[in-house]
Amino acid sequence: MARKPAAMDDAAQRNSPNDDIGEALRLKLYRMQVELREAEQRAFDLFLQNLVKGTSHLSLGQEAIAAGFGVAMKPGDLSFCTYRGHAHTLARGVPVEKVLGELMQRDNGLMRGKGGSMHLTSVEHGVMGSYAIIGAHLPIACGAAWRAQYKGDKDVSVCFFGDGTTNIGAFHEALNFAVVWKLPVVFVCENNLYMEYTPIGDVTAVEHPAADRASAYGLPRIVIDGNDADEVYRAAMKAFEIARAGNGPSLIECMTYRHSGHSRADPAKYRPEGELEKWKERDPIKIYRERLKQFGVGDDVIEKINAEVMQVVNDATEACKAAPMPSLDILTTDVYADGGWAWRN
Amino acid sequence: MAELTYRDAVARGIAQEMERDNDVVFLGEDIGKAGGVFKATVGLYEKFGPLRVRDTPISEQAILGAAMGAAMTGLKPIAEIMFSDFFAVCFDYIANEFPKSRYMTNGQVKCPLVVRTGNGAGSRFGAQHSQSIENWAMMIPGLKVVAPSTPLDVIGLMAAAVRDPDPVIFFEHKSLYATKGEVPDGEIVDTLGTAKIVRPGKDATILALALMVPRALEAAERLKAEHGIDVEVIDLRSLVPLDTQTVLASVARTHRLFTVEENPRLCGWGAELVSIVADEAFYDLDGPPVRITTPHIPLPAADILEDLALPNAERIADRVRRSLEG
Ligand SMILES: Cc1ncc(C[n+]2csc(CCOP(=O)(O)OP(=O)(O)O)c2C)c(N)n1
Ligand SMILES: [Mg+2]
Fold first, then answer.
1. Residues, beta carbon < 5 Å, ion ligand 2
2. What ipTM, to 2 d.p.?
3. Are A115 and B244 in contact (CB < 8 Å)?
């Protein structure tokens, strides 16, 4: 049989029943990744203008993981993020303005400046917090999953963390605990190859810091391409199905790479020459744009999405610049449930 | 009315709250089928079943982390940390997570949970199973801290702690588990942040907590019998919230202040109380406030050494008498 022209292959693939993602979802995944990219790029620009204060940890280059999981999660599912949590927070539908506002320490921020970049939380969107003590949130996610199990609810707790986190005790305690109690929790390791500045391979007994430990907890070894949003989405859906069916936790290791330094203070000089360039070839957004084209999505559609996202980010930036600083009276609010800070009569 | 041990009061207090509210759940090491290493939770597993009374692995971080995750999503967990000394291996939750989540999130995250733990010396367990660490918890904004000294207070303060919307650290004294007290029938609910004058007196105020309360009371009886000195003993019961009004009013009447603390000297709760009284009632005082504490040492295992370290009735009485006699 003669080879079919490439265009026909594309058309066939587009309409094939094997296209489990589908066009609507694909466009959503693309839009989400672009939004995460542009919002964080803007955060970096605002930092250079000294409008974002404190520290911030960007996920540039890791967007496919946040987008894949974020799109796969249903309302009611709960996210537990790290200090590198802007993307995961946005991926649950939290407005860009709320996130940038918090980074800019404005009154319109998610927590009115009381938490900052490392603690983004939006309970109404299921973002149950961003945790800055390595590993702390894995057991906390177990507890939220325990509540779902106890109540017979079908929501899943999803816990994101880095490769470096697999070497702290709480990781191991949480995995054993989740398996023994059969909890509906999904542990997502974003393996970006580095802890802060040290390559993870230099300090870890196994090649895949999360997946190679899974067998110790009776879990399957799962390593996926974390720069391919479709692959992430599929892995998420599979894990959610297991969790919702009452069959316990999953541990997914997503291979990825951060394009920027660990935090805003880090020029990332420790990277071997060429490594960043190699990974930029595998930029998740670049990969996904090619995917869209493969499926016949036109440049006009892609450019329209890009422009719409840019508008959202620009509007959010202006709103934040115009927003007031928090009022000083919140210094002592919400220490205790009565709204105040009184420790004595 | 029934006579109950402090140990049985723990189980009764928890049971009272679990019966009242299905969202109250209980987790910890050996707490269920085994009834707890101090036998303070006997019968709860049988009564409430394995879904509400859950035995855990030896994973203190997982225990407290899971309690927090459950609390912030709607349950009212009670977590046991077997010995308070083990707070050191899960201190992140106590110091960084429970108490800061509400503040950092501008009030979005709630953390209504209770951590109950076996605290204090007297069991000859040595330096890592005997400490009084109320001050480890007291120093952290966002926590509430209670330490009952009687079976009645155990039940009432447990109920108050479980019903409280904030994280509460509940210190049970290991050397009080076998002590007995009268407890009325029916529901018992107390109030956090209320000190109790357990012996009225006019010559001096003694502040005490947990095991130091019966010792201070015994010292008071001796002082009265042997020297005609009439001291007031206040059981603080709660360090946060702190009932400073009861303390200040007492000092205004007695004009002298003593604290009896089981903790090693530095930064014990008494230092804060003395500081408050010095700030706000200095001119009520007829003499310097005195702190009677365990010396600033790790605790030894041998009984004669441990007994020497902790304040006892004799030492308390002697110190108060010498001080009052000037
Ligand atoms: C308990 C604890 N130890 C150390 C740190 C300092 N620290 C912050 S981020 C980080 C690296 C974490 O690496 P990884 O888990 O791979 O996450 P990534 O930053 O790469 O997303 C370290 C060591 C911390 N925040 N908490
Ligand atoms: Mg990393």
1. A 162-164, 192, 194
2. 0.97
3. no
Q: Residues of A33-48 as b/e, b for ≥16 C-beta within 10 angstroms?
A: bbbbbbbbebbeebbe
Hey, is the C-beta of B66 within 8 angstroms of any chain A C-beta? yes
Beta bridge partners of B199: B233
Instruction: Express each pLDDT in A287-310 by its tens digit.
Output: 999 999 999 999 999 999 999 999
Q: What is the pLDDT of residues B204-251, one digit of tens each?
A: 999 999 999 999 999 999 999 999 999 999 999 999 999 999 999 999
CB pair distance less than 8 Å for A140 and B241? no
| B191, part of any domain | no
* Ligand 1 atom nearest to CA at A166: 15
Task: Confirm whether B129 is a catalytic residue.
Answer: yes
B150 and B200 share a domain? no
> What are phi and psi for residue B54, nearest 5 degrees?
-115, 120
CA of A132 to the centre of ligand 2 (A): 13
Give residue for tokens 């009276």.
A329
Chain A hits for B102, CB-CB cut-off 8 Å, are 334-337
Q: Under 8 Å CB-to-CB from A182, ≥6 apart: which residues?
A: A149, A246, A247, A248, A249
**Number of the ligand 1 atom closest to the C-alpha atom of A263:** 19
pLDDT digit string (tens) for B93-144? 999 999 999 999 999 999 999 999 999 999 999 999 999 999 999 999 999 9
pLDDT tens digit sequence for A88-147? 999 999 999 999 999 999 999 999 999 999 999 999 999 999 999 999 999 999 999 999
Structural domain span for residue B292: 196-325
A·B CB contacts under 8 A: 159
Which among B154, B183, B212 is the end of a domain? B183
Which chain A residue's Cα is nearest to B245?
A: A345
Domain count, chain B: 2
- One domain, residues B166 and B209: no
Indicate yes or no: CB of B105 within 8 angstroms of CB of A114: yes
Residues B156-214: pLDDT tens digits? 999 999 999 999 999 999 999 999 999 999 999 999 999 999 999 999 999 999 999 99
H/E element, A299: helix A299-322
Question: Model pTM greater than 0.90?
Answer: yes
Q: Is B128 on the interface with A (CB under 8 A)?
A: no
- Which domains are seen in chain A, by residue range? 24-322 (3.40.50.970)
Q: Ligand 1 centre from A81 Cα, in Å?
A: 12
Chain B residues close to A106, C-beta within 8 Å:
none
Token output for A59? 């996920």
Chain A 19-78, residues with CB within 8 Å of chain B CB atoms: 78
**Residue B128 is assigned to a structural domain of this protein:** yes
Query: What's the pLDDT at A10?
Result: 53
Q: Which of B183, B204, B238 is the C-terminal boundary of a domain?
A: B183
